């Protein structure tokens, strides 16, 4: 398991939004989408505000590799499921980071459906 370089972790964790694209089975990138990201300690996490039916999330389930772009960085990543015991800490990270956004949008990433899509991003 590869850890993030501190500078990359800081840049990605501080980004308000990232571009994320999963790899297709043939190795080409899917169309990127813009989503929120949260940092909890030395890991970064994403969730689908629209649950398991979101196309970008479904792509990560087909092949758990892809690319993100954030704060001027472009990194190849793996998408790993998260132990539900971490959900409360990740919720807190999303709440803290996006507290200035309208509550209706923040609440979308805090639902049980969204929590079930939580992925840890790891550098390749």
Strand order of the largest sheet: 2-1-5-6-7-4-3
How many structural units, i.e. domains?
A: 1
CATH superfamily: Electron Transport, Fmn-binding Protein, Chain A
Strand content: 25-35%
Helix and strand sequence: HEEEEHEEHHHE
How many β-strands, per DSSP?
7
Give the overall form: globular
Helical content class: 25-40%
| Low-pLDDT segments | none
List keywords for this structure.
Pnp Oxidase, Chain A, single chain, 124 residues, 31% helix
Describe the structure.
The structure is a single chain. The chain has 124 residues and is an alpha+beta fold. The chain has one domain: Pnp Oxidase, Chain A (Roll), CATH 2.30.110.10. It has five helices and seven strands, in the order αββββαββαααβ. A seven-stranded antiparallel beta sheet has the order 2-1-5-6-7-4-3. Strand 3 and strand 4 form a beta hairpin. It is globular and about 40 Å long.
Layout of secondary structure:
Blueprint: H1 6-14, E1 18-22, E2 33-35, E3 38-40, E4 43-46, H2 55-62, E5 65-70, E6 73-81, H3 87-97, H4 103-108, H5 112-115, E7 119-123
Antiparallel strand pairs: 1-2, 1-5, 3-4, 4-7, 5-6, 6-7
Would you summarize the structure shown here?
The protein has five helices and seven strands; from the N terminus they run αββββαββαααβ.
């Amino acid at each position: 398991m590869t850890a993030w370089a501190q500078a990359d972790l800081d840049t990605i964790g501080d980004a308000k939004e990232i571009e994320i694209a999963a790899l297709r089975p043939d190795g080409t990138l899917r169309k990127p989408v813009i989503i929120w990201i949260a940092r909890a300690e030395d890991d970064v996490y994403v969730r689908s505000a629209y649950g398991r039916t979101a196309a970008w999330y479904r792509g990560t389930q087909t092949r758990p590799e892809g690319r993100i772009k954030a704060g001027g960085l472009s990194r190849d990543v793996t998408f790993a499921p998260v132990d539900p015991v971490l959900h409360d800490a990740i919720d807190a990270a999303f709440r803290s980071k996006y507290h200035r956004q309208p509550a209706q949008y923040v609440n979308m990433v805090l639902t049980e459906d969204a929590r079930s899509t939580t992925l840890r991003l790891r550098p390749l």
